[in-house]
Design brief:
- The chain is of the alpha+beta class and about 140 residues long.
- It has a single domain (about 5-125), classed as Nuclear Transport Factor 2, Chain: A, CATH 3.10.450.
- Helices cover about 25% and strands about 35% of the residues.
- The protein has helices at about 5-20, 20-30, 50-60, and strands at about 35-40, 45, 65-75, 80-90, 100-110, 115-125.
- It has a 6-stranded mixed β-sheet with strand order 2-1-6-5-4-3, covered by helices on one side.
- A hairpin with a 6-residue loop joins strand 1 and strand 2 (about 45).
- The model is unreliable at about 130-140 (pLDDT under 50).
Length: about 140
């Protein structure tokens, strides 16, 4: 699948994540074995077969959830983009989101499209939750 921007690839990634659609998920990833994925508190998954198996396992185990994403930082270059985001999961009928998961998503441009090559997600410590926009005045 061709994604015209890193943002379009990321929107498709999180739509596939939330809908637990493995085919849609793997369509976002680059079509080679240079990809890697690290789920929270898990070992790295290297290559398409391992990444696909990891998402399959996660989707099989997951119940209904919604995910909200907040961009914390972005680095955009001609052929790659790094997007650091906070993922807020709302599981089942919970009233609000759980503490955020910090994720780094690396996208690579090949030809006309952008694809995901790395997703690394890690839970934050309770005291590590910081707003995306720091206060304008910093006191030392």
């Amino acid at each position: 699948m061709i994604f015209s921007t890193p943002e379009a690839a990321e929107a498709a990634f999180y739509a596939a994540f939330e809908s637990r659609n493995l085919d849609a998920m793997m369509a976002v990833w680059a079509d080679d074995d240079s990809i890697a994925c690290i789920h929270p508190l898990s070992a790295p998954l290297d290559g398409r077969v391992a990444v696909s198996a990891g998402w399959h396992s996660m989707f099989e185990a997951a119940g209904q959830f919604r995910i909200q994403v907040e961009v914390a930082h972005e680095i955009l270059e001609a052929t790659q983009a790094v997007r650091i985001v906070r993922e807020y999961l709302v599981i089942g009928q919970e009233a609000g989101p759980r503490p955020p998961i910090l994720a780094t998503n690396l996208y690579r441009k090949e030809g006309e499209g952008w694809n995901l090559v790395l997703h690394h997600a890690s839970p934050l410590q309770v005291g590590d939750v910081r707003p995306a926009h720091p206060p304008s005045v910093v006191l030392h």
